[in-house]
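Write out this protein's structure.
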Amino acid sequence: MDLHLKIWRQKDKQSEGKLVSYDLKELNPHMSFLEMLDTLNEKLIVEGDEPVEFDHDCREGICGQCGMMINGIAHGPLKNTTTCQLHLRSFKNGETILIEPFRAEAFPVKKDLKVDRSAFDRIISSGGFVSVNTGQAPDATAIAVTHQTAEEAFDSAACIGCGACVATCKNGSAALFTSAKITHMVLLPQGKEERSGRVLNMVAQMDKELFGHCSNTEACEVECPQGISVLNIARMNYEYGRALFFRKK
C-alpha cells in the first residue's frame, strides 16, 4: 500500500516546527505504525536526510512511550490501542496521515515527535509511592484484600503514563493520570496510611507542572489506550476534600 505522510518536524524546543510531507510506497499493510516510521527513517538516512525522532520502547503496548497524535487522535483511530500496536491495515491505500507530537504546555517538544513527559515523573515522586520499613518482605497473604477491591485497584494501576489523556484534554489536564495513581494505592491497605499527604502533594505538584484543570469532558477516558475510568477523578476529588477537612481539624 502507498501512504502520504505529513509529519511534524522540529529541531528542538527553541526552534519553530513545521509539517513536512513524505511519500512511502509498497508498504506491507501488516506492518505496525512504528515499523512504517522505521521504514521512512531508513529511506531518509539513505538519502542523507535527518531521520524522524519519536519515542518508543517495548513496542508491545505496555510502556506507553510511543504516544503521538495520528490524524488528530492520540495513538490513532483504534480504541484502547497504543501507537505501537496500531497497524497499517487500519488505514486506506493512498491515505494522507497527519502525525504530530502530543500537544500540552506541560509536554514541551524535544524534537520532532518526541516530547518531555518528565512532569509525570515529578508527580509520582511527590507522593505516588508507599513508604515501608526495610527488612524481610511480609507474607503475601498477611493482609486480606477482597477480590473486588483488588480488581478495582488493578484497573487504576493499569495506567501506563503515556500522556494521551493530557494531549486529548482541551485543557491539557493530568487529572486522569494523577487520579489513577492515587486511587490504586488508596484502595489497598498498604496505601491508606499516607492517603492524605499523598493526594495533597500529588495534586499540588500537578498544578505546579502547569497542567490544566479538569472540566469533565471525559475525552481522556475515550482515548486512553488502557480505558482508565474518569471515576478515578471523582475519587481523587473526594480524597482531596477529605484530606483538607482532616488537616483543618
